[in-house]
Structure formats: structure tokens, C-alpha cells
């Protein structure tokens, strides 16, 4: 059963090229790390970077399992670089087929965004000039998140060769930590630069071996004690001349030998099962579950099942730009990476700043999920959105410990978190020269979590969640704000904080933080009173668990009324924090090739404190999150003022500027900001894609299209659309999930079309302010409104 005849040699063909594919043509070692990131395959439970199966000098391979962290010998906790399931080496007549040993005659790789399959074709020249082709396909199954697949075919093109193909599970993995301190300007070429890093070890082997034709290896994280089991089954394709299985420390491998004739492909299909002791809702051991996942080596059947799930995901999630193929591809690329970053079946994990595509930020979770990524999942994959919020409840104990460590009550979410909910932000930069005050002062993340909870309940109508896990978080975090705020006469203030603009630390009364804290408290009061009326038994349980009473709620309401915050709808220009307007004005005078602002001469991230320069503007973020709370005049004034002082040194900033600019009628830079967000990784326009995806930018790209150019908003008054598409775009098409129903939008310059999917009562939406009634299954056309 583990040998196939050459009749079943075809590799799966990619989808229509261009529209759904990202391609690497030719081998360029200086671009290899970039492609490793953008070619990541995954399924929300794991992500595997797009490294060559055989490796190469300077490669940064990695497989990352959501929620598997360890801090054995690293300064702060790491998302563990887990065992490698791809490692495969081919010898032809004793010559190793790799890009460093032999000449590469042809090389192409294609990532099929529609199916999540990475295809490869490389032709090597042996020493005598004879050519040998290596073709592979790999994917992480969306149908069975415990399972990965690799198909390898090797074809001599000019003459017969003796082939030896070894494929293995390699558990000898390390995480990169930091570079030694070198003189300024020191650089290393692609072959050496990663070798200079210090390494951390997070895995120890617990067992390995073969049971029949299944090879397995079990490891355990050294500090966090997570057991990780891998199992593999290899099905040979072609006439074997030899076969052997070997094991050694941290490795199990299988070798297939062939006498391959010219034009005849041989190789194998490999299935790998992966399971851990932290997986939710399971009973059998990781080793048993990993082995069970390898029962069938049928690559094609497994691919068909995975493709079926992908088809459902794209049906719900695709956002299509018609008329601009390059923008359309960038948007699909962004959605693809979002879909492989979330696991709707696991409410104990979240999405790190680099998703599961690299070691950047050590896999830590920031506020990016709640503010940038959650909207995408809310409106396309609400079950995944619910799971992501589940992580914050799962780590609530850690948030309570973070508050207690600082001498406060209640719960405070850390700036960077991992598996426990404790603070994982480094204290200093790797060179020790600069202090990270984000861990101490960027408190707004706690209010951001509250914001996400309430948005989820509003969009989905899931009051059971709101009055359960959501309420517990809202109430306990409100207790933190009560103890953290300071009375100043008849008002309350927040001292020594940092807003989203991380250029300025130790500031008082940050407008964004204070207003979001006020909003947070207001929502907690509202939910408490609703539960008192409609869910008294559940409220009683929470009151007992959290030791709160009606008097606490009155304190929340009083604090919300007294805290210094910009709430007047005609407040005008908002001062970002106390004394901001007195800071030194430093004009921005230099822009890069993407027309993005650069640091003025002599300035960098850590010396802008005394200036009005911004990493990203807090006031504009406030206009984005609470657009209904401020008049159009206030929103426009703040956008214009702060946009001129912003350096966009956060990848979150451009998309927010595009959206708010469009909302206030300033579209002059919207396309530029969209491009900065959409192509940050596809074009590597920040030069650091090799470290992992800017996954918040991917979500921001979707938001620019849907909330920006399509003018979509969802709130207490329902759904509204005010499209204003770029001239180069013909149409934008997307679907919105709203309280258990789906609305399809097809928007253009002349006519807009809407369809309410499914059965039930009609739904009223608004298009450019006019009410439109949608009847299930009936497409409604609305004439577009001319925009200036």
C-alpha cells in the first residue's frame, strides 16, 4: 500500500495564474528569505515557511504551532520553531541536488492562494551537464489541522540516473535570539547573516522510532512542558531498487532508491501528523493522534478535502477588486494570509504580530488582533472571531497577575502576551541601549480588548457571549481602571502612559487612552445594568466570582463621567496629550521612493520625545474607532493636523490614514496609503518581510477596501455603504456577515448591487444615507452617487 505506480504522477496544477498566484521565477539567493515568508503555507493551527525542501545557505526555515511557546534559555518567551516536516534531500549519481552544489537551469515556485498549495519546479545540471528536474507540492490541510502533505517527483531529463531520496522529520531546531553588537554599518551577506545570531534551544527529545511504516518523534518544550508529536508515512512512487529507515537523535528518516530512466518521474507522497499536549478538546495522547493522522497517504484525496474547505473560506471571505489586477492580487494575498493565521477551533490562541510566518516579535500577541485583524474575521469568519476573543478570556488570569504585579486591582492585559497572559515585552532593545516603556505604559490595550468584545456582540448579536465571558472581562478590567486613575480635584486623570504613538512616553492624559477608558467604563455599566434586568442569575454568578456589587458599578459610572477625555462632538482639534502642542515642531522634508515620510536628519525612533513628530497619530486612531462620537468638522481637523506630522513608522498607520481620510472627504493620499499597506509584504516595501508577514497590514488592507473605498460601516443603525472607488477600479465585490445573515455587495462607479442571502425577514441598509430594503435572494440595484 505504500508504493504507487507511475500512472499517478501528476502534481496538482495551480489555479489561474496571475489572479490567484504569487510566483518566484528564477533562483536569487538574496531574495530567498523574502519568499520563505510570502510562501508560508498553513491552516491556523500551524504555519510553515516557504523554504526549499533541501535547504540552502542562509535559509530561515520554520514551522510554528499556534500557542506553543517556551522560554528555556531565551530572554523572553518564544513561539517555538517546531520540528521540520519538509526536510528532503535528493542525490543523483551521488551529486546532491541543491542550489548551492549545482547549477540551477530553471526554477519556479507558485503559491496557489485559492487552495493553499505551494508548487515548485527546479531543474539542476549535474557535473556532466545532464539535467534533473525536481517538482514538489506541499500544503497544510484545512480539512484536518493535524495533517500536512508533501509530494516530491524527480525526473531525469537527459539520461538515466541512480537516485537516492531521503525525507525526514528533523527535531533539531533552534530559535534565533539576537545579534552581537557590531560596529555601526556592519553588514553580512545572505550566506552568513543568520549564522551570526545567538540561538535558543526549546525542545528536548522524548522518543523516536518506527512502528511498521510510520516513523515518529516526540519532543517536549523544556520550560513550558508542551509535548509535541510528529508522525510520517511515506508512499513511494515508481520502481524501487532499495528502501531503508533510520533514526538518530532528534531525527527519523526514510530513504528511497531508484534507477530512474529519462523522462520517467519517481518520488514519494508523504503525510505528516502533528499533535501537541496543549490541543483543546482531545483525549488521546499526542503520539496517538499524530500517528492516526497518517493513516492514509493518498495525497490527492487529502488535497480534495482541503480544497473543499478552502472553497468555503473564499466564498465567505473573498474581497474582489475588478479593474486593477495588481491591487486585486495584493488583496487576495492579504486575505490568504489572514485565513491561514486563525484557528476557529481553538479559543486559547491568538494571532501574533508576524502570524505563523516567522520569528519576528517572537510570536507575541499585541493589540493588533483586536483593532486591525478582528474586523476582517467579524464580517467574514465570525466563528474565528469568537475564538480569537476566547484567547483573552483564557489568559484573564494572567491579566489579573499583571495588574497585581503593579499594585492594582482587577485585570490589565499586557502589551505583549503569549500563552499565559503575562507581560512578555522585553525590557530593553537587544543592545541594551534603549528601554521599552511600552510594557509599563501602553495601557490602552486593555480598553482595546473591551472594544473588541462589544464590537463582536454588536456585529454578531451573540449576547450569550457578551453576558458570559465578555462581561467577566469588562467588569474585571473596569476594576483596574478605577485603581489606576487618579483623582485631580473634581476630575480624574491618567498619568504616565503611552498611546499608540510610541514616540512619546511618560505622558499624562493621552487623548486616545483616556477616551477609550471612558468608553470601556460606559460599556461595562451598560452591560451590567442589562444583565441585572435580563440575566440576573448570570450577573449574580459574576458578582460572586469577581467580588463586585452595585456600588462598584456606580464608581465606574462616576469615573467615566469625570475622566478627562475629548467627548464633545464639536471639540475641534484634540491635543494628543497634556503639553503636546508645546513640543518642538520638526518639519518632515524627505520622502522615500514610495512617497512615504522619512525621519528628519538626526532623528530616530528613540529621540522624538520632545517633538511633535508621530509614529502614528492617536487622535486619528480615535476617529477611526469611534467615528460616530465626533462631528465631521472635528474629524477632518484632526486628520489634517496630525497627518502632516506622522512618519508612519508603524505598519498599522497607513491603512488607518486611508480609511479616515476617505471618511472625512480627504482622498488625496488614500490610494498611496492603500498601496503602502497592500504591498508592504508583496513588494517588501519596508525591507523586512523576511522576518515574517506584517499581518496587521494584511488586515488593514482589507479594511481600507471595505471600510474605506466601499464606505461600509456597521453599528446600532445597521449596515451602511458610501462607496467612492479609485478611478482605476471598476468594481469591488465582497460579502458581509451581520447577525447571522450575509449581505453581498457589488459596488461600482455607476451602479451598486446588493443581495441578502438566505431566508428570513427583509433587511434595511443605507446607501449614501438613503434607506434600501433587501429581500432575501433578490438583487437590488442602487444608482451610485457621484463623489468629488
UniProtKB/TrEMBL annotation:
Domain Glycoside hydrolase family 65 C-terminal: 717-774
Biological process annotations from GO: carbohydrate metabolic process
Glycoside hydrolase family 65 central catalytic domain mapped to chain residues: 332-703
InterPro entries: 6-hairpin_glycosidase_sf, 6hp_glycosidase-like_sf, Gal_mutarotase_sf_dom, GH65_N, Glyco_hydro_65_C, Glyco_hydro_65_M, Glyco_hydro_65_N, Malt_Pase/Glycosyl_Hdrlase
Binding positions (substrate): 367-368, 615-616
Keywords: Glycosidase, Glycosyltransferase, Hydrolase, Transferase
Leader sequence segment: none
Superkingdom field: Bacteria
Record-annotated Glycoside hydrolase family 65 N-terminal domain positions: 23-278
Pfam family, one: Glyco_hydro_65N
Alphabetized GO MF terms: carbohydrate binding; glycosyltransferase activity; hydrolase activity, hydrolyzing O-glycosyl compounds
Active site: 502 (proton donor)
Entry's family note: Belongs to the glycosyl hydrolase 65 family.
Protein's UniProt name: Glycoside hydrolase family 65 protein
Organism from which the protein derives: Gordonia asplenii
Amino acid at each position: 500500500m505504500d508504493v504507487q505506480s507511475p500512472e499517478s504522477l501528476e502534481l496538482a496544477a495551480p489555479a489561474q495564474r496571475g489572479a490567484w498566484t504569487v510566483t518566484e521565477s528564477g533562483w536569487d539567493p538574496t531574495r530567498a528569505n523574502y519568499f520563505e515568508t510570502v510562501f508560508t503555507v498553513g491552516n491556523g493551527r500551524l504555519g510553515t515557511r516557504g523554504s526549499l525542501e533541501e535547504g540552502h545557505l542562509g535559509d530561515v526555515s520554520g514551522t510554528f504551532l499556534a500557542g506553543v511557546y517556551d522560554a528555556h534559555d531565551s530572554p523572553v518567551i518564544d513561539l517555538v520553531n517546531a520540528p521540520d516536516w519538509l526536510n528532503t534531500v535528493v542525490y543523483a549519481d551521488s551529486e546532491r541536488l541543491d542550489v548551492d552544489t549545482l547549477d540551477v537551469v530553471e526554477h519556479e515556485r507558485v503559491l496557489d492562494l485559492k487552495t493553499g498549495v505551494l508548487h515548485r519546479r527546479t531543474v539542476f545540471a549535474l557535473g556532466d551537464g545532464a539535467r534533473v528536474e525536481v517538482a514538489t507540492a506541499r500544503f497544510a490541510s484545512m480539512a484536518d489541522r493535524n495533517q500536512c502533505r508533501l509530494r516530491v517527483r524527480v525526473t531525469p531529463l537527459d539520461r538515466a540516473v541512480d537516485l537516492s531520496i531521503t525525507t525526514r522529520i528533523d527535531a533539531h531546531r533552534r530559535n534565533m535570539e539576537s545579534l552581537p553588537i557590531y560596529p555601526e554599518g556592519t553588514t553580512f551577506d545572505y550566506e552568513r547573516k543568520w549564522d551570526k545570531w545567538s540561538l535558543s534551544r526549546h525542545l528536548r527529545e522524548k522518543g523516536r522510532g518506527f512502528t511498521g511504516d510510520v516513523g515518529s518523534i516526540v519532543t517536549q518544550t523544556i520550560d513550558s512542558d508542551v509535548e509535541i508529536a510528529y508522525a510520517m508515512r511515506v508512499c513511494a512512487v515508481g520502481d524501487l531498487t532499495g528502501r531503508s529507515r533510520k533514526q538518530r537523535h532528534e531525527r527519523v528518516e526514510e530513504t528511497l532508491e531508484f534507477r530512474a530512466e529519462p523522462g520517467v518521474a519517481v518520488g514519494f507522497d508523504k503525510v505528516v501528523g502533528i499533535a501537541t499536549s496543549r490541543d483543546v478538546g482531545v483525549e488521546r495522547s499526542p503520539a496517538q493522534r499524530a500517528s492516526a493522522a497518517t493513516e492514509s497517504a493518498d495525497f490527492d484525496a487529502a488535497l480534495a478535502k482541503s480544497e473543499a474547505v478552502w472553497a468555503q473560506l473564499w466564498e465567505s471571505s473573498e474581497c474582489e477588486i475588478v479593474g486593477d489586477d495588481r491591487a486585486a492580487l495584493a488583496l487576495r494575498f492579504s486575505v490568504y494570509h489572514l485565513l491561514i493565521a486563525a484557528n476557529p477551533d481553538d479559543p486559547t490562541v491568538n494571532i501574533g504580530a508576524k502570524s505563523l510566518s516567522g520569528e519576528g516579535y517572537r510570536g507575541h500577541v499585541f493589540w493588533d488582533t483586536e483593532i486591525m485583524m478582528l474586523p476582517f474575521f467579524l464580517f467574514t469568519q465570525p466563528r474565528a472571531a469568537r475564538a480569537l476573543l476566547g484567547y483573552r478570556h483564557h489568559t484573564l488570569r494572567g491579566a489579573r497577575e499583571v495588574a497585581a504585579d503593579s499594585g492594582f486591582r482587577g485585570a490589565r492585559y499586557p502589551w505583549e502576551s503569549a500563552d499565559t497572559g503575562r507581560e512578555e515585552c522585553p525590557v530593553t532593545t537587544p543592545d541594551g541601549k534603549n528601554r521599552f516603556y511600552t510594557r509599563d505604559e501602553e495601557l490602552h490595550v486593555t480598553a482595546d480588548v473591551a472594544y473588541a468584545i462589544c464590537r463582536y456582540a454588536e456585529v454578531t448579536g451573540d449576547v450569550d457571549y457578551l453576558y458570559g465571558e465578555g462581561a467577566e472581562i469588562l467588569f474585571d478590567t473596569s476594576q483596574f481602571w478605577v485603581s489606576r486613575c487618579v483623582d485631580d480635584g473634581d476630575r480624574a486623570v491618567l498619568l504616565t502612559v503611552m498611546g499608540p504613538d510610541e514616540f512619546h512616553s511618560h505622558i499624562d492624559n493621552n487623548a486616545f487612552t483616556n477616551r477609550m477608558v471612558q468608553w470601556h467604563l460606559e460599556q461595562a455599566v451598560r452591560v451590567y445594568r442589562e444583565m441585572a434586568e435580563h440575566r440576573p442569575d448570570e450577573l449574580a454568578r459574576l458578582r460572586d466570582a469577581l467580588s463586585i456589587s452595585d456600588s462598584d458599578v456606580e464608581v465606574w459610572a462616576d469615573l467615566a463621567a469625570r475622566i478627562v477625555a475629548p467627548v464633545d462632538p464639536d471639540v475641534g482639534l484634540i491635543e494628543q496629550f497634556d503639553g503636546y502642542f508645546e513640543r518642538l515642531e520638526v518639519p518632515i522634508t524627505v520622502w522615500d521612493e514610495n512617497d512615504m515620510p522619512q525621519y528628519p536628519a538626526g532623528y530616530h525612533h528613540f529621540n522624538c520625545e520632545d517633538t511633535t513628530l508621530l509614529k502614528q497619530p492617536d487622535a486619528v486612531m480615535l476617529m477611526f474607532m469611534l467615528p460616530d462620537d465626533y462631528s465631521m468638522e472635528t474629524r477632518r481637523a484632526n486628520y489634517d493636523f496630525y497627518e502632516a506630522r506622522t512618519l508612519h513608522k508603524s505598519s498599522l498607520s497607513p491603512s488607518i490614514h486611508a480609511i479616515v481620510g476617505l471618511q472625512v472627504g480627504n482622498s488625496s493620499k488614500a490610494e498611496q496609503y492603500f498601496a503602502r499597506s497592500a504591498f508592504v509584504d508583496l513588494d517588501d516595501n519596508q525591507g523586512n518581510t523576511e522576518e515574517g508577514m506584517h499581518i496587521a497590514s494584511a488586515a488593514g488592507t482589507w479594511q481600507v477596501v471595505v471600510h474605506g473605498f466601499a464606505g461600509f460601516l456597521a453599528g446600532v443603525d445597521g449596515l451602511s455603504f458610501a462607496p467612492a472607488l479609485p478611478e482605476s477600479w471598476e468594481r469591488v465585490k465582497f460579502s458581509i456577515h451581520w447577525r447571522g445573515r450575509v449581505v453581498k455587495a457589488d459596488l461600482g462607479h455607476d451602479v451598486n448591487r446588493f443581495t441578502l442571502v438566505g431566508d428570513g425577514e427583509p433587511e434595511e441598509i443605507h446607501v449614501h444615507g438613503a434607506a434600501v430594503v433587501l429581500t432575501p435572494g433578490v438583487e437590488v440595484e442602487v444608482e451610485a452617487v457621484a463623489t468629488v
